[in-house]
Amino acid sequence: MSNSTQWVSALKGIIGETNVIQDPDQLKAYAVDGLAPKAVVNPGSVEEISKLLTYAHSEKRTVVPRGNGTKMATGGIPGKIDVVLSMLRIHRITEHDIPNLSLSVEAGITLAEVQKMLAGTGKGSFLPLDPPYSDRATIGGIIAANSSGPRRYLYGSARDLLLGLKAVYPNGDIVAFGGKAVKNVSGYDMTKLMIGSWGSLGVITEITTKLLPLPEASATLLTSFEDLAKAGSMTRKILHSVLLPSAMELMDGKAASQLGESARYLVAFSLEGVREAVDRQVAEIGDIAKKEGAVDTKVLWGEEDRIFWRRVRDFAIASEASVILRSNFVISKQAEILGNYEKIAQAAGIGCAWIGHVGNGILTSYILENGAAKMGPVVDLIGKFTAEAAKHGGNLIVESCPRDLKEKVRVWGQPRSDDVVMRRLKERVDPVGVLNPGRFVGGI
Amino acid sequence: MSHGDRFEICPRSWGVAISEAITVFRDGLAYGLSDSRFALDAGRLEITKGFKMEKDKIISEMVRLVGKENVLSSDMHLKLYEYDASLIRSKPDCIVCPTSTEQVSKVVKFAQDHKIPVIARGAGTNLSGGSVTVQGGIAIVLTRMNQILDMDIENLRVVVQPGVITLDLKNVLAKHGYLYQPDPASEKVTTIGGNFGENSGGPHCLKYGVTSNHVLGVELVLYDGQVVEVGGKALDNPGYDLMGVLGGSEGTLGIVTRAVLRIMPKAEAVKTMLCIFNSIEEGGNTVTAIIGEGIIPATLEMMDNLTIKAVEEAYHVGFPTDAAAILIIELDGLKDGMERLTERILAICKQHNVREIRVAKDQAERDKIWAGRKGAFGAVGRLRPNYLVNDGTVPRTRLPETLAKVVEIGKKYKLPIANVFHAGDGNLHPLILFDERDKDELERVHAAAMEIMKLCVDMGGTISGEHGIGVEKIKGMSFIFSARDIAAMKKVKAAFDPENLFNPGKVLPETEKAA
Ligand SMILES: Cc1cc2nc3c(=O)[nH]c(=O)nc-3n(C[C@H](O)[C@H](O)[C@H](O)COP(=O)(O)OP(=O)(O)OC[C@H]3O[C@@H](n4cnc5c(N)ncnc54)[C@H](O)[C@@H]3O)c2cc1C
Q1: Min CA distance, B353 vs chain A (Å)?
Q2: What is the domain extent for residue A268?
Q3: Residues A185 and A251 in one domain
Q4: Does A175 contact B248 at a Cβ distance shorter than 8 Å?
Q5: Which of A160, A184, A244 sits opposite B465 (nearest CB)?
Q6: Cα A138 from chain centroid?
Q7: A270, A215 Cβ separation under 8 angstroms
Q8: If you count residue pairs, one on A and one on B, with CB atoms under 8 Å apart, how many are there?
Q9: CA distances from A44 to A90, A164, A290, A299, B356 (A)
Q10: How many structural domains does chain B have?
Q11: Domain range holding B273?
Q12: Is the CB of A191 inside 8 Å of chain B's CB atoms?
């Protein structure tokens, strides 16, 4: 293993002895699908990352970038991992332009820390992203995974918010795209390309984003239904109305009870903005819900309102689901698809809970029992769920599952016709296969 | 002149079939948008052709592939398609007007096999040379692919062919109570394909985002003629956000033959205000203060005295010709709380010494204000034989400072500059007025434009907010990007277009090879 010690000592030369982990016991904590890296590095600057990648590129070593590790279970099984690149020391707030409502931060800072700073500065603002793992997820990880949450219904997702981004390319090139101007068509929009590229095109080191002023008021409206079709019809009414909730989530009874609510089906609305509009929407959506057959409605204010949404976001942790599936499809079909998923799961005898962004056509299925123990039926269920989503213009991603299961399913869903372009892109940007090889769509 | 009145879209089939005459007429109209034609000698490019096939042979091959009726090749036609709304000119070897994806694919495949450039073209109204065939080749004009294919209101999506005229689509949607948000001032004639190609913006993009926030999927013809689906009606499809990089790529990565657009229900309430200032600086400061107060209106549009006068003369919309600046503020959304928000905005305006505020009482008054804004380029175009539009964007807090420097640049080069801009976005459009026959003046125009670009970059902004790089701003790319940044973009180009045949010579400058 002298070869291995040789290159690890080269890493130490680049990153510094104390910032390289080599102890096998410690390395286990960084394993991806059971595969531990040979080293973990904690660089303290973008230049160090650049040197590291230049070295990895020339030595044909593989590098897996990592924030706080909340989404490392997503993606194909890696063929080989030489180095895990921890971004946690790259965590400065580089520019907060309050009157311009823009912010630049480095990748390793957590979103929670950013939000806290923003809320407490000047008149108060926020970065309108509310992805899962609310306490731990880092900005870099959120952007690389294009992670989003319920409030994307009103505020959009990272592609609608980011103004610019800096990254280190697989060959070590330090690059900067976009800027802080809110409109920008100078050159290709590389920022969007990097969002959701899951660390396979470059290591995101810094982002610049738009901010929004903190809303004047906010509240949650919970409406419960016995009949799924009625819940579906109500949400469609809201989608086509002038009303503007910031989130509209449909969940089944199991998910609701995890969140402390008892309902066969629950539709939860987040309402934010000027006080008058929040008050009106609480009342009006409540009325619509009742007319459409809601059996109960309830309003949460203040701390209760905040806690509810945090629990929705962190459902993956609380549910202890062994398998998490994310389906997308056209927006009018949410209730219909949920109903079909319930039937499929019931027939297979597999316990599931569901929460979906109704206004965005995204439904997350949480398989509550040991997925590995029921391998055959779970594989079958994933196939059926995927087919159902595909029937309505969508697909299904396996967000997390045990390694054994990964071997039997397509974690990135059904192939698409544009896969060919994605493969060419990866080959041009990362011909050596330094960054996260094998883990993204189509095994690129 | 409204297109909607003239060319009704047939609601039953959701389709339009327009004759060749109308296609030409539409293109003609696009040129007529700005009264000044840009016969810029310096802009007529020396063509260095990288292919061997004779023009006549290309034409006969095109006739074979797409039919005589879909090929334009007369001298008149080649001349008609040698320009867009920039100062750049260069003739194509042949023009094809395909009517199907299959035809586009065949033409692209042929071009690939013979290494002939292919340039997609919509209405040809872009302001940066994006649809000019600077290395010759085949212009693929998509205006005959102008059907609305699917009004999927239930899913808040529409699927259109690329040649659909932006405003025509909006008029159809309005009948159903829905909106497609992007609103370039040129929307009467522009195509959805061209809007996506440039990632066009407009007044309401302050609140709703630009074209690429609203185009969710496309059918794309790749360099080898293969047809792929990118994105779609559903959000978050697995894989890279190719839609992201295609938006604003100016036809350099592939040809869009179909687009899936996001639509939304019409807002409940709209309030439009015209705020009149005696100083342009006060106007700019008002914009900064409104955003700083945490208010993001639907629009924050500004124009200076020269523009106001030109607009008034051309359209008589009632703008005060002695004002230094006017600010058009529009709020939309729920009616609740809008009055209070309006009061807050008015208070901010007063703090900044607004001279007068006019609140539009009804749709007719609103339309009048917007007619004035949307007609601004055309109106300014009447002042001198030619104009050049800049498109730099700065952080909105630096608007007043930037404007003052733009005025200085105008003085330095002895050129009149009119200013119309998307103030809320920090996107400036200084219009430099000149007469192209005066060679000395022409040179000063180019120098001033370069200096304005540089100024915007120095202010922490960028060289183009919505009009694109094309050829016109290609030299400015080095102000913002390093050779490595450009190299990264070139890898994208190579992945989509290995032989560099889609709209060559645009967007990405030649650079020293990055390490
Ligand atoms: C008076 C006036 C006012 C204007 N106002 C605005 C404004 O407010 N905001 C704004 O953003 N712009 C504005 N513009 C600029 C221009 O109208 C826009 O850039 C418009 O979107 C161009 O559309 P088009 O159909 O004319 O496209 P073209 O000019 O024909 O093409 C634009 C680019 O897109 C590419 N392209 C076209 N179709 C396709 C396709 N199907 N597939 C791939 N690539 C394609 C072309 O190759 C070219 O690079 C204005 C222009 C004028 C003359």
Answers
A1: 20
A2: 217-313
A3: no
A4: no
A5: A184
A6: 11
A7: no
A8: 263
A9: 6, 22, 56, 46, 55
A10: 3
A11: 267-383
A12: yes
